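Repro:
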Amino acid sequence: MKINSIKTALFIAWRYLFSKKKHNIINIISIISTVGILVSSAALIIVLSVFNGLEDLVSKSFNQFNPDYKITIVEGKSFPKNMISIDKLMKINNVESVQEVVSDLTLVYFKNKQMLTHFKGVSNDYPKKSKIDQLIYDGSFELKRNEKPFAVLGATVAGTLNINLNGLDLLQFYYPKRNKKNLSDPLNAFQILYIQPSGVFLSHTQYDEKFVFVPIDFARELGEFGNQVTSYEIFLKHPSTNFSEQSQIEKVVGDQFLVQNKFQQEELLFKTMKSEKLMVYLILSFVVLVAIFNIIGVIGMLIVEKKKDIEILNTLGANKNLIKSVFLYEGMLISLIGATLGSFFGFILCVLQQQFGLIKLGDGSASYIIDYYPVIMKSSDFIIVFLSVILISLAASSISISGLRKYKTNFDFYR
């Protein structure tokens, strides 16, 4: 009679897993392996979920500042605004507004303090279209009042220059003149304009130190841009998840212009975050690998202990494939129990972090956007962790049973 059933192999492996062993060290190593897999699997779930939360937080912070699409010229700094048909862009489905922008690096001087930053010249309706007026921290997002220009500064710029919105002092903007340059009189080589600050915005991003918003006419005069723009910014009626409008915009503007969606505008940042997430996953997977390779010792000792059982199975008609499957499934069961429990505890800890914010950011002070580490769980992370444990476990168990032929015994199975 031949015994060649997967169900039989699983049944025997399950019995071996929980049955009392003659050598207690086998049980100890099995428990250590299971706990190791449990802890490392839970750590993988938690860390990947935290990375998801941080990525979502950063994405929301930058996306609140960046336009849905940004159009810049491939070669050069600026271009005539009539090179692009605004009417054609407005006809694209879901496009609400197309805004002219003039932006460049400038030196801002205020009360014996100075800072290199960027001026960003925009129209009066830009704040409402972009919803950047919702980021106002102090004062108001006002660029013009009775034809008088005003500037809105990023929080870091305002702090560095020690801006007082209630004072009468004006900001001084310095920008190199394009044509007139006199080395004997350095100040004459700069275009100098004055403007009063009206507000401070806070985005919790690098833009807090990167931008000062000014009226677009002021920006054109400062940089002598004339009838040119440095970019067009497009805002949509409804948020786009698949960026379906991008290909249509690219057809309108042509190959000489670069069209970037929200994520492409911060491509380096998001690529860095994904690379960091991958590296952490690989490091923790190595910890899982170390924990799972204890299974090699468990199976090796179990083979030695179960010599008589193997002889009986062989006598009953079990072939070598079935007996190999028994020990292969033994290792897989240890890993699956550890991975399942690890995923469960990882899920519970993530839920507790979401609800109660157990782990604080820094010392828990109000110097961060949020007080605790953000957590977002994704089913794909659970699947990836589970598959990783199964594949590593399969490799470790296969290595263990590959030594069966080298094991010298008088059983027919090993001959």
